[in-house]
Amino acid sequence: MRRTLAVAVKELLQLRRDPRTLMALVGMPVILLLIYGFALSLDVRHIRLGVVDHDGGPAAREVQQAFLSSGYFDLAALRHDERALDHLFDTERVQAALVIPAGYGTALAAGRPATLQFVLDGSDAQMATTTLGYARQIVASLSPVVRKPGGLGPMRPVPLVWYNPDLSSTRFLIPGLLGFILMVTAVVATSLAVVREKERGTMESLRATPLVAIELLVGKTLPYLLIGSLAAAGAVALAWLLFNVPVSGSLFWLAVVTLLFLAGGLGWGVLISSLVDTQQVAFQAALISAMLPTLLLSGFIFPISSMPRVLQLITHIVPARYFLVALRGIVLKGTGPEAWGMQAVALVIYGAAVMLLATVRTVRSI
Amino acid sequence: MSSVQPTVIARELSRHFGDFVAVDRVSFEVAPGEIFGFLGSNGAGKTTTIRMLCGLLAPTSGSGSVLGLDIARDAHALKHRLGYMSQRFSLYTDLTVEENLRFWGGAAGLFGAHLRERASWALAMAGLEGRRRAQVRDLPGGFRQRLALATALLHSPSVVFLDEPTSGVDPEARRRFWELIDELAGEGRTVFVTTHAMDEAERCHRVALMHAGRLLALDTVPRLKDRFPSGSVLEISCPRAAQALDVLERTPGVSEEALFGERLHVVLDDPGRRDEVEAALSAAGFSPLEVRPISPSLEDAFIHTIRSAEERTRAGAAAAERGGAA
């Protein structure tokens, strides 16, 4: 224990002498969050909407108004004939069109079902899906108002989106981004820490001391756990202030889960540095092995459920996968351990496994 | 020496790296308080032997013990008891003198008042009392080596292994470093030191010569030099010494010849053949000739030892070939 502490103190002293590395460790997460936070948005806004109004009555105007005041749609063209739409879509003057049939207002007033036509440009499927989602939401929100007060008349499904009512993708992405940034920082930091000793030749002398492998590795990891926690706290605060993603759940559980995740990432970094001999190789291995799986296989951007079976199996060894579920739970839904307990257990297992492997490797590399 | 338990014992110690035999069945004993020199060129197997004795490398075969602890089974316990200064510089250059001492002391398991006391002892020993807050990178090489030695001694080990401790250090700093080694031996500590410098080997109580993984000779310096009959080592000064070397190579009665700067060292089969050799050189036109018998240097002794060993190996190989053909 004392020897572990001696290593940790030494590592902190060396970090203090190396302000560039220290700044990179604390500053990188914040800068990455700013860059990705603003650039990474799957939201679609200012969709150019064409309107063909055959009705022309007050109810029809109300529908148009609902679309235009939603903030998602801008009126790009107003026509009285559908045949004009082809041309508008071809020239990309509109991305979506709303067609209000004649007799829409009278049908509504008589309590008969009234239909609206919504035309989409499906060539950008991602955008079309999102746009359709917005349109459904707007029409749904309109229905009870248009209907007679009292809620009589035909039943309509009313979609309700929880946790992220405006389906803001930023809200969904920020937790993933936090996981991504922490993973990259943690792995890079520790992967360099042990290799540095090998490169400088101090490893040989360390091995001649009574210091055992686990003491060395844990001592090396502790300072980065501290710095990683500071960086994580900064990133969470920034997400709150800048991207309006407050933590709905318990800060305590957030800290616990984040520490578990960081420990796993740091362990992975230590494992890398026990396998390679130069800082350059360690850096590259750390960057690639931390970035790609966390970006692609964690459910950060691409849902795991829509991946091929083989990839789904592989995601089980990506720690960010578990962290993201727990993080989204705590930050967006405010859930407690009963909801994401298994994810936390998975993180513990991952951290213990990589640390064990790293220790075995370090002992063997004699 | 016979009544006292040896500090270091090596029995048929070997280490192979794949097909390469780095250390080949080496046996020796080192007594308490002895300065034991390990001499040999790079790649002779000195560092590999030291690493095995310090419990850093498992022997392929053979056994060894240090302070009564088995180097394979008790490697961890051993690390509490011995000091080791590796060939590569082992301090953190970006930390201060004091921070290094505190870290290496902590890694050795020292703490609190005991650690502080040992750290001030180390500062005094390295002569760095006034520079405890200096970063190690700013220290001259000699001070760095002294600090590295002091660091290896923080936990007061009774045996210390120094692997080429004075490489890259100026002669004055080297002299001061060896004064420290003498002091350690005076305190009863065992010092096991590797070197390829003859002047350093001369300061050891006993010297072991390693060559190509094998231990060729082990004795005190005077007795190593006594391997030649008196009058059989000659120093010859003549013009064009390098060409004279070729002549000597073909002269009967000359068993070894080597160029030492401008002069030649010649080892005769028999001291009585000196006149024959002089005549051969004069006949070949190397005059004026100045010949005088000298007492052999340690280097002469080592060249002699290595050459005889190589000849024996060649003879053995040739005999084996003949045996195979018949």
Structure report:
The complex is a heterodimer of chains A (366) and B (326). Chain A has helices at residues 2-16, 19-39, 58-69, 83-90, 104-109, 125-146, 169-200, 202-207, 213-243, 251-275, 279-296, 309-314, 319-333, 337-364, and strands at 47-53, 73-79, 96-100, 117-120. Chain A has 366 residues and is α/β, with parallel strands linked by helices. In chain A, helix 3 (58-69) links the parallel strand 1 and strand 2 (73-79). In chain A, helix 2 crosses helix 9 (213-243), helix 7 packs antiparallel against helix 9 (213-243) and helix 9 packs across helix 10 (251-275). Mean pLDDT of chain A is 83; it is low at 148-159. Chain B is an alpha/beta fold and 326 residues long. Chain B contains eleven helices and 14 strands. In chain B, strands 6-7-8-3-9-10 form a six-stranded mixed β-sheet, sandwiched between helices. Chain B has a four-stranded antiparallel β-sheet with strand order 2-1-4-5, with helices on one face. The A-B interface holds A 2-3, 5-7, 9-10, 13-14, 17-18, 200-202, 204-212, 366 and B 54-58, 76, 79-80, 82, 84-86, 88-92, 94-95, 99, 102-109, 111.
